[in-house]
Amino acid sequence: MHSKPQLLAWLTCDGVHIDPGSGKHTILGIFSNIQARQFPVTHPFMVWFLTITDCQPGQHTLRISMGREPADPQPLLDRPFESASPLHRINLINEIRNLSFPAAGEYGIVIEIDEEPILATSITVTG
């Protein structure tokens, strides 16, 4: 029986800088909601940063879905990644460009690894 991947960090931010010498990640501009003057609004660029562990060795797929209706999130991102060991901490930097929000409200976000949900959260968009 394999353990389920564990999510250690989930951040929405403006950017992530990786130091070429040390490999350390610097997270820039963390935020948890979006303010808009009018709707629909398109957010030009954000990063969804995840750190996961307990991933079995081999290829995996990260899927992030989002929607106004919790029961019907639409896939936004599908990407492969590799795990060398369940002991490793894997940082995944996901650049999200031109994400549109038709109206103010809560937008549900579901994060899955290999079609197994590991987090359900939301982002608030206000006017």
Descriptive overview:
- The chain has 127 residues and is mostly beta strands.
- 0% of the residues lie in helices and 69% in strands.
- The protein has a single domain (6-126), classed as Sandwich (Immunoglobulin-like), CATH 2.60.40.
- The protein has strands spanning 6-18, 25-30, 33-35, 41-53, 58-67, 74-83, 90-101, 105-113, 116-126.
- The protein has a 5-stranded mixed β-sheet with strand order 3-9-8-5-6, with no helix packed on it. It has a 4-stranded antiparallel β-sheet with strand order 2-1-4-7, with no helix packed on it.
- β1 and β2 (25-30) form a beta hairpin.
Helix content: under 10%
| Strand residue content | over 45%
Number of helices: 0
Number of strands: 9
User: What is the CA–CA distance across the termini?
Assistant: 47 Å
Give the low-pLDDT segments. none
Radius of gyration, whole Å: 15 Å
CATH topology, which one?
Immunoglobulin-like
- What spatial order of strands do you see in the largest sheet? 3-9-8-5-6
Helix-strand pattern, N to C? EEEEEEEEE
Number of domains: 1
**Main beta-sheet strand count, sense and barrel state:** 5 strands, mixed
CATH architecture: Sandwich
CATH H level, superfamily name: Immunoglobulins
Question: What's the CATH class, please?
Answer: Mainly Beta
